[in-house]
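Example with several molecule types.
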Amino acid sequence: MSNDIVLDVRNLRVSFGPEETRLAPVDDISFELNQGETLGIVGESGSGKSTLGMALMCLAPAAQNARIEGSIKLQGRELMGLSADEMRSIRGHSMAMILQDPMASLNPVRLLGDQVGEVITAHQMISRDSLKSRVLKAFTSVRIASPEQRINAYPHQISGGMRQRIVGAAAIIGQPQVLIADEPTTSLDVTIQAQYLDLLKDLQREMGMAMIFITHDFGVVAKMCDRVAVIYAGQIVETARVRDLFRTPRHWYTAALIACVPKLQGEAKRLAAIEGQPPRLVSRKPDQPTACRFAPRCPAADKVCEQAPPETQLANGAMVRCWHPREAS
Amino acid sequence: MIRARPILIFAMLIFALFVLASIAAPWIAPTDPLLGSLGKRLKPPVWAGGTWANLLGTDAQGRDVLARLIYGARISLTVSLVAIGIAGSIGTSIGVIAGYKGGWTDRIFMRIVDLALSIPVILLALLFGVVFGPSFTNVVAVIALVLWSQYARMARGETLRIMREDYIDLARTSGLSALQIIRRHILPNIAGVIIVVATLQVGTVIVLEASLSFLGVGVPPPTPSWGTMVADGRSYLTTAWWLCLFPGLAIMLVVMSVNMIGDELTDRLNPALRREGGEP
Amino acid sequence: MTRAIITRCAEALIALFLMSAAIFALRRVTGDPVALLLSDSATEADRMALTANLGLDQPLLTQYVIFLRDALHGDLGRSLIGDRQPALDLVLSRLGYSLQLAGVALVFSFLIGIPLGVMSAVHRGRFIDFAARLLALIGQSVPVFWLGIVLIFLFSVTLGLLPTSGYGDWRHFIMPALTLGLFTLAAITRLCRASMLEALNSEYVKFARIKGVSENQILIKHALRNSLMPVVTFMGTFFAAMITGAVVVETVFSWPGIGRLAYESILRRDFPVVQATVLTMTLLFISCNLAVDLIYLWLDPRMRQGAK
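Resulting C-alpha cells for the full complex:
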C-alpha cells in the first residue's frame, strides 16, 4: 500500500449559532487519508460524525451562522476558500458521499437514471447517448440487473437494497478519489448489509478509491477499515490501525465502546454500558483550554483531566488524546 | 429562528380583547346597540367631526357603531363556538369510529366525507337561509355542515396512527372495551390535533358567518352582526365610509390574530420544520 | 389507476345525484310557486291549470323522476320570473362571464402565489419572506365582501381610476379578479412556502448537493416539482373557494355571472333557476376535482400504479 496522502484534514471545526454561544459539533479534527485506504470514523450518535462527513464535502449544517474552518487538502489542493462553483465541481467527482437513508436520498418523483446522471450533467455538457452509456455503466458496476429498465424506474418501484446500490452508483459515476460513506448500511437488512459492504469493497478495489467509513458499528469497522478514528463529542480521541485498536484500545472511551460490542464467542457476558450521557454539543470558548470531554464518564479521571488532554503520538501512526492512556499490553 | 414575537403578543391581545368584548358587552358598550335615534343619524367618528358620545359614529338609524361592534363580537364568537363545537364532536366521533373499526365502516364513512367535500356548501347555505328563513340556528347548522368533514379526516388519520402503537395492543389484550380504549387512549391523544384544527377554523367561521350575514341569510337583523353591518353600510359608502370600514376591520383583525395563534399552535405541535440543522 | 379514475367518476355522479335530490327536497319545503306566479284576480280553475302545467299535482317521487329525466335532456324548467326563459339557457348565458372572472383570478393567484411562496422559502427569514407571509396572512383573513367594498371605495369612488362594477374591458376585471383571487393567492403562497421548505430540507436535496448539483438546478429539478404537488392537491379547495367567492364577489361588483344569478334567484325564490345554477356549479366543482385528481396522478409516479 502506497503512502500517498489523498486527503489531509487539519484543525477542522464546524460551528454555528450566535457568536457568544457558538456550538461546535466538530471541533479541531485532524487526520489524513492515504491512497486506497479505508478510514473508519466511529462514535455514538450525536458525536458529530455525520456533521464531519458533510463538512469534508464543504457543506455546512443548515443552521444559523454555520461555519466551517480549518484546512482540507485534497491531493495537495486546499479546498477551504474555494468558490462555490469550484467546490461544486469537486463534489461528485473528486469526492463523493453516500448518506444513510437510501429512500430519502432519492427524489420520489424523478427517474433513477436522471438522478444518477445528474452528477455528470451538473458539470459538463454531454450528449444524451454518452450520458446514457455512462449511467448504464455505473448501474452495471453496482450490480443492478437489467439496468436498461431500471434507469426509467422510480425509487418506489425497486427494493431497499437496490435503492442503496443506486445511491452508490450516483456516488461512483464521477469516479471519485475519496468516497465518504455515512452509515450506509444501517437501514438495510442484515443479509443485504453484508452484500453491500462487499460491493463497496469491490468498487474500492476496482477504482482505487480511498474511503471514509462513518459508523457506530465495530463489526463493520472490522470488516471494512484499515484504520479507525474514534470520535467523542466532536473530537478525535484515538486513532489506530484496526487490529491494534481492537487488541489494545488506549483510550478509555474506545475500550468502553469495544466492551459494548456483544461477542459471539466466549461466555455470555452482560452488555457493558457506558455510564452517563455524551455532551451533545460542545460550546467552545477559544481562549480557554477545555477539560477532557470524556472525564465525567471516565473510570480513570482525576484532577489533571480538568486540563485539556495532550495528543500523544504512538507507534504505527496511532494517536491518543488522554492524560492517562491505558497501558499497551 | 427568526420569529416576530411581538406580533404574536399583539395577536393574542387582539383576541383577548375580542373575547372580552363578547363576554362583557352589556357592561362596556357605550349605548344600547339596537336603540336608534333619528336625530343622530350618520354621525361621523369623533376625529372626523363627530362627538365623543359616539366614538365611531352612528349608522343610518342613529345607532352607535361602537356598541354594535361590541355586540357583533358576541355573535361572531357564539356562532364560532357553537358551530365548531357541533362540527368538532360529530366529525371527531365519525373519524374515530371509522379509524377504529376500519373495513366497511371506514370505507363508507370516508366516502361520505369525500362527498361532503365535493358539494359547494355556500350554495346550500344560501338555499337553507332562504327556505327556512335567516336565523341563528340556521347559520350554525350550515356552518357545522361545512366544517365537520375536516375533523372526520383528521381524527381518522390520527386514530389510525395511534392504533399502530403498542399500548393499544396492550389495552386490548388486557380486556378493555372499544369504548374504554377510545376514551382512555385515543381521544386524549388526538385532542391536541383536533384543538389546533378548531383554532384554525375560528377564523374561517367568523368570515363565513359574516359572509352569510352580508348576503342576508345569516343572523337576522336587528341583531348586530359584523357582516350585516358591512352590508347595511354599503349603501352609504360615499357619504358614511365608517359604516363599512370598522366592522370589516374588526373581522380582519380578529381573523388575523386567530390565524396567527393557530399557526403558532401548529408549529408547536409539529416541530418537524423547526428541527433542521440540529439547532438547540 | 383505471380503477381509481372510475371510482372518482362514480363518486362524482353520486355527489351530483345527491345534490339534485337535496335541491328538489328543499324546493318542496318552500312556499307554493303557483301562488307566487298567479295574479290576485286568478280563479281556482287558473290555479289548477297552472299546478297541472307545472307538474305539481303528481306524487313527489314521480315529480323527482320527471325532474331527473328532464334534467338529463337539458331541461331544467323555466324561470318563474319575467319572460320565463328556460333556466338552463339563462345559466349558460351567464356561465361565460363567471368562467372568465374565475380564470383571471386563478391565473393571477398562481402567477404570483407560486413564485412568492418559493422565494419566501428560499430566502427564509429575509425581508421577502416576511412580506410574503404578511401578505398571505392578510389574504387569508380579510373578508372577501369587505375587500371588494374597500377597493371600490378607494379606486372608484375616491381615485376614480377604475369602474365601480359591471362587465366591460380589462379595467373591469382588475378589482373583481383581485378580490376573488386574494384568498387563493394567500393559500398558494403558504402551501408553496411550507412544501418548499420541506423539500429543501430533505435528504434528496442534501444528496443532490453532495452530487455537486447547483442550487438553481436543485430548485428547478428537485424542489419545485415536489413542492407543487400539495398545491395541486388543494386545487379542488381553491376552486371551491372560487365558487364560494364568486357568489359574494359577483354580488359586490354586479358581475353578470352565475354567482350573482344564483344569489338573485334565491332571493326571488325562482327555483328552477336556482336548481340550474346550483347543479351547474356542482358539476363544475366536481369536474374540477376530477381534473385535479388526474393531474396528481400524472405528477406523482407513486400514484400511477394505483398502489397506495
